[in-house]
Amino acid sequence: MNDTPRRKTQHTAHSWEDVVSENQHVEQWQQNAFHAAVEKLQAGHGNPDTVMRMGEAFGRGLFAQHIKHKTSTWTIKEWIMEIQKEVYKPLGTEFTFTKISPDVATTFMNRNPLAQSSHEQAAASLFSFGVLRGLFRSAFPKGELVLNDKGNEDHPEIFFKTHASSKDSLERERTIRTLTFLKQEEGT
Amino acid sequence: MAREAFIDTTVQTKEGFVRTGIDKLDRLLEGGIPEGFTVVLLGSPGSSTEILVKQIAISGAVTYITTEETKKEILDTMQRFNWHIPEIDFVDISEKYYSNVLQGEQKRVSIYEQRSKLKLKELIEIGSTAMPSTATADEDFLAILSNSTKKTPERRITIINSLDFFLSQYDQDDVLRTVFAVKVNNMKNKGALLIVMTKGVHGELFERKMEGLADAVLELDVIQKGSSFERYISVKKMRNYAKKIGIARYVIDDSGFVLEMIERIM
Questions:
Q1: HSE (side-chain half, CA atoms, 13 Å) at A67
Q2: Structural domains of chain B, ranges and CATH numbers in brackets
Q3: d(CA B232, CA A63)
Q4: pTM: predicted TM-score of the whole model, two decimal places
Q5: Strands B228-238 and B246-253
Q6: CB atoms within 10 A of CB A49
Q7: At the top level of CATH, which class does the domain A4-187 belong to?
Q8: Per residue of chain B (266 residues), what is the pLDDT tens digit?
Q9: What's the per-residue H, E or C state across A24-91?
Q10: Which residue of B has its CA nearest to A50?
Q11: Shortest distance, CA A126 to any CA of chain B (angstroms)
């Protein structure tokens, strides 16, 4: 890519120690942000929207700090490549993309260390979805993430749409309810 | 305990300063916040920043822009502490946000209800993405933030609790531009602008940018010591007032935010 030199000065690791510290840095940052989200949930009125919002804010922060060379002609494929390399690999999160077209992608989240290590399952799922949404909407402001909860409850399918319909733009609240409900059911 | 008990008569009202109304905090700040200053309040999780800003809000002439709690929730908490509540000018973005959420949810449910009553042929005719004609654009909360500070009277404290909300909805650069506009309004009005932000969520780069933009930075931290937790407030930056850099331990008790010990660093 044309702007590789600029990126190298900021985020390209030069040694094994650098890789470890960069990964630890992002992981630690996520832990802090998640801790803050849970604390806000407990200190506030138990509104799960707060957790999603903190995830979105963290996702936007990750994008601003780690993804520097976004262009207006970015496709979902380019977004996925950057996000996987700069964000999800350091976090140890794994996705399987079953479909990628220029404006729509479909994925399953296979591995989410945050949710696996947390006692707050519902909050971790909500937060992770918020992170994904924040990362996506930083690149595609008119886009939306739509959760398909009809299939596998452990690994629900997520649609990324760069141009959301007005119906899609109402999906965020349904997602909050779905994730909260699903995880509470699992916990009982 | 009545709120008057916190007012320290030893801290004189100084020309050119806005008092926070919390005696020892004003003493830590040697008279209060200099007029026209933008103060970033960086709070760690569990540091009870929301109690501190509520207590500052009862100090007198205050505009409180709330995104985390509704006006009613804030007043309920103030009453629980038994504080005397003066007239506060609320800009309730939280209420607006949740009204929009509810409206959106009703819209979504009504679409499914309408669609469930239709026959397959009718559904195909209206298309799979048909929406009620009432669908409206999202509210621009950054514009509300910017506009609400333009009209603020002089020498008033403006509290934004918190920037986290805007950072979940907008790009960091857009938020920074708006904060800068709000800061300029505050300078013109010779007020004190307090911006609350959770520490460790938005990235070091953004925190540094905010610290650079601010005239003063107060940080609230929680440190575990053995089996207990201690809370500290530190004045990390105070433009043109290096002497004010300091740290103080505080507790939250039935009366609210109480500073216990002040240590001057410079």
A1: 28
A2: 3-97+139-264 (3.40.50.300)
A3: 31
A4: 0.85
A5: antiparallel
A6: 19
A7: alpha beta
A8: 443 334 444 556 678 899 999 988 998 888 899 999 999 999 999 999 999 999 999 998 999 999 989 999 999 999 999 999 999 999 999 999 988 888 877 776 666 566 566 666 565 555 544 443 333 446 899 999 999 988 888 889 999 999 999 999 999 999 999 999 999 999 999 999 999 999 999 999 999 999 999 999 999 999 988 888 999 999 999 999 887 888 999 999 999 999 987 766 65
A9: HHHHHHHHHHHHHHHHHHHHCCCCHHHHHHHHHHHHHHHHHHHCCCCCCCCCHHHHHHHHHHHHHHHH
A10: B68
A11: 14
Grouping H, G, I as helix, E, B as strand and the rest as coil, residue A14 is coil
Q: B residues 23-82 near A, CB within 8 Å?
A: 45-46, 48, 50, 68-69, 73
Whether residues A64 and B203 touch (CB distance < 8 A) is answered with yes
**Taking chain A, what is the end-to-end CA distance rounded to the nearest angstrom?**
50
Rounded distance between C-alpha atoms, residue B145 and residue B159, angstroms? 11
Quick check: B206 and A44 CB within 8 A? no
Mutate to test the interface with A, among B168, B169, B172, B222 (most CBs of A within 10 A): B168
Which chain A residue lies closest to B48 (C-alpha atoms)? A43
Tokens read off for A115: 């949710």
Domain-by-domain residue ranges, chain A? 4-187
CA distance B203 to chain A (A): 6
Least Cα separation, residue B140 to chain A (angstroms): 14
